Amino acid sequence: MLLDSHDFGYIDFDSITGLSNVADNLRMELISRGPEVFQKKDANFAVSAGRSMTLTWFKRSLPNGKEVNRSWLLYSPSKKSVYCFCCVLFTSTSSNSRSSFELSSGFCNWRHTERLRDHENSPSHRISFTKWKELEHRISQGMLIDMEVEKQIQHEKQKWREVLKRILACIKFLASQNLALRGHCESLAEDDTECYNIGNFLATMKLIAQFDPLLSSHLQHSKNVPGSVSYLSPRIQNEFISLLASTVRKQILCDIRRNKYYGLMLDSTPDLAHREQLSEVIRFVDVNFKTKKVTIKESFLGFIQLHAKDAATLENVIVEQLQADNLPIADCRSQCYDNAAVMAGELSGLQQRIAIRNPQASFCFNCSMGENERIAWNYIGITLKRECPTRWSARQDAVNAIHEQFDGFLQLLENLYEDGTQTSETQNDAYSLLQNVMNFNFITLLDFWHAVLSKIDRIQKRLQDPSMNFHDAALDLEGLQQRLSSIREDVCITAVNAAKVLCEKLGIRIEERIKRRKQMPGENAGDAGLAAVEEITRIMKSVIDRLIQEMTTRFGRLETLDEKFGFLFNISKLFANDTSNDIQQHCATLADFYKTDIDGTELFVEISDCSMLLKTRPDATPSSPLELLSFIIS
Fold first, then answer.
1. Which of 491, 526, 535, 599 lies at a CB distance of 3.0 to 4.6 Å from 530, suitable for a disulfide?
2. How far, in Å, CA of 448 to CA of 544, rounded?
């Protein structure tokens, strides 16, 4: 407090004697800085009994008319008193010679200015003044007794700083490469044959030590003196990683707050201990006016532990986290979750709860689904794929692998069933699969799904393109819906005909014996349901109808977003002369939604001005909103 405020009244005084308690290191620091920084000549001097201190007190008039600065005189705004610099630092041993200039209360009797001269001429002040100047001289000349000790301390400080720099650089490198730091047996001993893996951290440190004498000496000392301070323990590693993570996170949050608006991207998943945790990702547009660059960033901020997965709990956790990060929820402009009901529900889902708090936080579904898994079962040059419930591409891979090599797949099952070296369980599984596969319904649906999923897979892969925007996504999904509607009849007929040909080739019966069922009132004795071909056709048409219905329901929000923002993605139409009325209407609609952010008239004027600039620069015409924003920033 004393060194920061430069107020001498903050020195520690004894509550009984009133004398100062100044440590040697503080005394040396104060003398090194000098009394000038503590004099407070520009302060508002306190008034007592109608009188106050004046600037003339800081000067002494000699008999010959010259003035000498009283460098020892200090004013304290906190105590509203004056002190003697040297007498406070070097208190007198005689209690009879003490004055108020060296006590905790200080001198504040402005009526008796003669006390200032009396103190200045007192023997105790002269002794303290002499001690002050002698110590000041020794400090300036480096003649202190403990100067060599101080040099050694500074040398040790610098050595440990350099060691910690190397340790930190090694940890940063391994962490940035996503490499493990620890090993099975961490030891610096070279003759320890049991430590075959000391970990990447110690191994990297030993490698650097071969070319760094300082680090080599440090590792040698740590090995020769076990238990000494080395800063190589896992605890130090974790502490460094935690500090690095905290620093990076603070910088990311500063970037987000600097750009103001952001979008939420959240998903929950269990960890290895089966505890639910929520991943927090913030999407924002980083505009750097110095480098004239625009970057769309998605920054991972960490995991949040969950105690429940209902929408209310998720809402409370997210709001609390945003408040802790100092990210106003009013600045949130988008939400991106998966299509789970608890996240995307229109009535009480998380996106609806956030929208109640901030209606401008538009919801957009998440196109990226997840990673598929491979099955380590290769045969005749193909790889069978496991069906993944959360990824359409995995379904396409699973169907396509069997569809393309159906004959080889049947041969494989027959070989496993007839192979006597196999276990009975394997043979039974192969026989059961063979009976299920050699079936008219299976073959028909195999061809049907191959045709349908191939079309879905093309759109799915386009949706996962990082450059995809919701305007193009809405157009692609609309085209997919129209395509499925147009092939509804043809794909069913084609699948049935192909299945008939293959069944005839393999000798598989199409019409199976229909099981008797209880006759219901109003039925004839011959009513036994639809034939096999009619039944499978009904199923396939129902599937396509359900697909179209689900796409309309799930992706309907894209149409709403496209109505608001879609005109900004069609760059050529945005700057066309014959569309100014439409653009003006779109600007008004967008401004009506973002009342606090956008003025529709000003936005239309800005678009018109930008169009004027682009007409004179045909080579700089942007092809995407990101390029347009970069052009505006530049």
1. 535
2. 10
